[in-house]
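MODEL INPUT / OUTPUT PAIR
PAIR INDEX: 1
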Amino acid sequence: MLVWRKGLTVHKDPDDIIDIVLDYSNWLTGSNTVDGTSTSTAETGLTVDSTSTTTTTVTSRISSGTAGATYDLNFNMVDSDGQELNRTVKIKVSDH
């Protein structure tokens, strides 16, 4: 599980299918929870296979990518109070 920080980069092989899990528990206040309408999107070349949520996290399952390329994986978290938080994780693809 990842706590977002500026410049966060995750490394993957082009053949990997991995989950990127962002934890928003430090950002949520009171009884607010992550809403099921939260999404994740990626630049062309990286595939978002699915997005799921818990009360404190957003998970993006990603695959593909070209070795040597770096992609933006964008998370849009919506909380139960309607507030939104947008974060980007860099995905660096390389053959392992």
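PAIR INDEX: 2
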Amino acid sequence: MADGGTRHSNRWSCGPAAGRADLSRTGALVIRLAGELDLSNAAALAGWLAGLAADEIVLDLTDVRYLAACGAREVGAFVTLVTARGARLRVVEPAEPLVRQVLSLAGALVPDPSGGAPP
């Protein structure tokens, strides 16, 4: 896919990162991000995420391997946007401990009542 970020209705890809958004059986919008979120793709990620909306959203970061400060800022901005819209949000934490730490420092992690299990 294009390096500048390719936007589809439910898929996104830019450099070393990718995203996919699908409806779950329960009707929640499940957004899965994977790869490396950094300066090369943070702006494209922000644009793609801003176009996604639902009453219930699961943001699955399990497969994010690297997260630069700019990527954490965009994830945090999306968390703020979703909660400001009044949607229910669940964030599935990344497997990578350093990525979890960056998200935590950025304030982008919200308590997960399900214990963090992927959807």
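PAIR 2 NOTE: The chain has one domain: 6-105.
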